[in-house]
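[step 3/7] fold_predict: job queued, chain A
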Amino acid sequence: MAETIEQLRAKKDDLQSIANELKEKRDGLHKESKQLAEERDKINASIRSIRNQIHDHKKKRDDLNERVKHAKGQRNQLNEKSKDMKKEIRSLERKRTSGSGEDLVKLRKQLRALETEQMTQAMSPQKEKKLIENISDINTKIKKQEEELSKDPKLKKAFEEKEVFKQKAEKHHETVEELASRAQQEHEEMIKLINKLDNHIKKVNKIQESIVNTKIKADDVHKNFIAHVDRIHEIERELTSLKESTYKKKKKAEKTSMHKEANDIFERFKNGEKLSTEDLMTLQKAGLI
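[step 4/7] structure written:
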């Protein structure tokens, strides 16, 4: 059974209401997608900044590590020179003390052994007294030999050179520790930023996934919206066609009625009846006069 104009209009209104809801939902999803994209772009800008900071910290760390390596090399060279001078001093001391029959190196070694024994071992008062006397005796011998050796210009110069090398090595060691500490700080800052970067990337990936899902939903809603709009247009065409058909039927019915009336008037005219002005106009419209 064909639908009436009222039924089609009611159906169109229902479809239009649904279409409006779909359009609002689609626009809402597009707005949500845009907001997510703005948030993603903001985090991406932060990611670029963090990457630049990581690069800067890495460069500083690597530069400092190179300086640490160089400073270590200089320190080690100075330590080697200090060791060499120590060996030279011992050699000179042995040569200078060989005539006295006492080896200064051995005396110092004996002194350290006796002092350790005194501090670590329990002993009787008599034994401790004898040990103290031995320590004092060795100390006297060492001081006597050191006084004699201090007058030797070669030894004096060797001691001075050894001390210079030692001080320079210590200074370079301080530089090594300072540079290494700074390099470690740069490394730790870099690691913090790398962890921050990882968290940002995870957030961006999650947001991007939400954007894709939101766009898919928006596309589905839009397709549904277009389907409803198409159906509305189809109903509008049906309404137009139905109105035209109704109009034609009405006109045809009016024309048929008019012709019948005109024929009746014409018959009356043929029978000699007097016609009114309205009757004449009806005959004229029907084409009978």
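[step 5/7] annotate
The chain is about 90% helix and 0% strand.
The mean pLDDT is 86.
exit 0
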